[in-house]
Amino acid sequence: MNSNKILKFLYKHRFLLSRRIVQLSILFLYFAGNAYGWTILKGNLSASLFMETIPFADPYAVLQMFAAGALVSIDVLLGAFLILFFYAVIGGRAFCSWVCPINMVTDLANWIRKKLKLDKDEWQLRFSRKTRYWILGLSLILSFLLAVPAFEFISPISMLHRGVVFGMGLGWAAVLGVFLFELFVTKNGWCGHLCPLGAFYSLATSKSAIRVYHYQPNCTLCMNCKNICPEKQVLPIIGKENGFVISGECINCGRCIEVCNDDALQFAFRYLPPKGKEKMPAEAELN
Amino acid sequence: MEKDTKHGLNRRKFIISSVQAVGLSMIGGLVWGAYVSEDKSSPIVLRPPGALKEEDFVKKCIKCGLCVEACKHRPNNPNPGTATLALGTPGGHKPKKSTPHIYPDKVPIGTPYFVPREVPCYMCQNIPCTVACPTGALEPNKVTSIKNGRKVLDINKAKMGLAVIDMESCIAFWGIQCDACYRACPVIDKALTIEYMKNERTGKHAYLVPVVHSKHCTGCGMCEYACVTEKPSIFVLPIHLAKGKAGSHYVKGWEKKVDVKLKPQTFHKTKKSEKSPEEYLNTEDLFNE
Ligand code: SF4
Ligand code: SF4
Ligand code: SF4
Ligand code: SF4
Q1: Domain A211-286 maps to which CATH number in 3.60.20.10, 3.30.70.20, 3.40.30.10, 3.40.50.150?
Q2: Both B61 and B85 in a single domain?
Q3: ipTM greater than 0.95
């Protein structure tokens, strides 16, 4: 009975737990790269070396370097291409939910938000989720004008990740800022409204293969999914039609899938709707 | 009619929010831009070997820290687990109060630097930091020389900074024997030499004083690290801060190879007088000309 409960809990949090494991392992491997000289992942999320051979680089940082007028080396270009290729073709915006260390900070803020019942409208400063695209554009203009990668100088993501690996300094203040903003000002304020890296991945990976699939006939319109989703606007199809979540803003966290008690959501490959769920039952009967 | 006003209202709203968005972007951009241009300029920061010029360096460095890790885990590290290099953090470098020295109070965020009084650069032969840099912000070609027709890494080519001596606090200039810096220098007798000077105060002793030669000094800071005075009397500064400039109109004429580029002189040739000198002298009234 008890073990059944545990199993059920694990199942209901399968993506959350996997994400935490992946996030923390990646963070730890980078940390160990500097602290103990492990060679699995060296460097940090801006650029790194995997197994002493394969370069990785943050494609958005490289884009800023282009804007700043830097001639980027082949190593870094290749690294940025590999990362971009993986997310654009396969993973979608999975960086945000499976790798980015800020995700743990903002998830914590949102969890507390719920516990403290701050989830009401008076604790919500509303502004457009499109703001992030303005910031993305602005970062490139500033990179050009100042001849340095401009977001890399203020990014709380890098400050946190670099901080854990190489030493924090006052970087925790920026992270605390993000936390408080998410907690008291706007729900999903950073990741869902402001972050230009998220905006970059939203634009670059909207055609990726792994997508959430909705099977409408099973949907009971409980709206658990929309309540938990950090990017609600990507779920217009819920209860309306079968289909993939096609917006690039979906971060592939799988939370909607976990909270759905009616098997109406699952991960699937784009253009390959899961077997038996391609069509509405009514249509199936007609054929 | 009603539809029209609604349409107009929507358009008004759209225009207003667009203008607001542009305005907010400009405010944000100004603050952001001001912060970045303030942060990216830090005059007294010392960079790893092979670093590009500062303005190119901050453009190219992706802040990955691979140089720091290479420095920390180099096989010949005398203090395993510590690194010469560190990445700049928000809030800048925090020195110990008990050991006063020169340090950058602010380092462009995420970029590598070192503070010689704390940990100098040991001038590794194989320059692991430069080689590790994926972006070319640290450029192996800047620390390379040609040996037997082949390019080889040459740490002696590094120009991380230049050591400067405060002759007033250096005790060798007081007449006390000290050559700690000289002995510590990895480019001993080239970058740092000991020179004799007569001690006029006693009349019978010599001063043995350290002298830095910028041609060979790499800026590693071993001297600064070794200096015995409370605050180091020899210390590394970025070259542009350490050096003066005489200007091109001062020329060391006594040095053999100086390439004196004088303006080509123009001589005025007056035509030689056709008259003989006697004639000339006799006919002209020299005094009342
Ligand atoms: S050359 Fe200097 S900075 Fe580079 S790895 Fe060696 S000690 Fe560190
Ligand atoms: S390895 Fe190169 S790009 Fe990375 S932090 Fe060092 S200087 Fe910057
Ligand atoms: S004079 Fe000092 S900084 Fe220059 S090479 Fe010698 S020890 Fe290094
Ligand atoms: S170690 Fe310091 S005090 Fe001694 S000679 Fe060198 S600079 Fe002067």
Answers
A1: 3.30.70.20
A2: yes
A3: no
